[in-house]
């Protein structure tokens, strides 16, 4: 099987807040992350192609940094105790994108 992903994914263990329509927040568990998106697990059913507003923190040497961005559900899979949702980042501020890249690089350094 040929790998189709553009960016490597790294396991994460943290809580993520997502909002559908920027009004109702749902807690999710982050499973993995890359420069282009993340996989989350949630108890709330999500439609494929749903738009999200995401809020999550990334740890840096100087402290935690809060990233806020928009994303799209790339795929949704029912699992035993909820749903796994592949979220593609669609709207990141330039500063947030740089911080996310630094975070991903730190995960990559730890994996090597």
Task: Spell out the key features of this protein.
112 residues, alpha+beta, Thrombin, subunit H, 6-stranded antiparallel beta barrel, 1 helix, globular
Report a brief summary of the structure:
This protein is of the alpha+beta class and 112 residues long. It is 16% helix and 58% strand.
Q: Within the CATH hierarchy, at the fold level, what is the topology? A: Thrombin, subunit H
Give the H and E element order: EEEEEEH
Strand segment count: 6
- Overall tally of structural domains: 1
Biggest sheet, strands in spatial order? Answer: 1-2-3-6-5-4
Stretches where pLDDT is under 50 for at least 5 consecutive residues are none
Question: Number of helical segments?
Answer: 1
Shape: globular
Oligomeric grouping of the chains: single chain
Helix percent reads 10-25%
Residue fraction in strands: over 45%
Radius of gyration: 14 Å
- Largest sheet at a glance? 6 strands, antiparallel, barrel
Instruction: Please give the alpha-carbon distance between the first and last residues.
Output: 24 Å
CATH superfamily: predicted glycosyltransferase like domains
User: What's the CATH C level?
Assistant: Mainly Beta
Per CATH, the architecture is Beta Barrel
User: If you average the pLDDT, what whole number results?
Assistant: 84
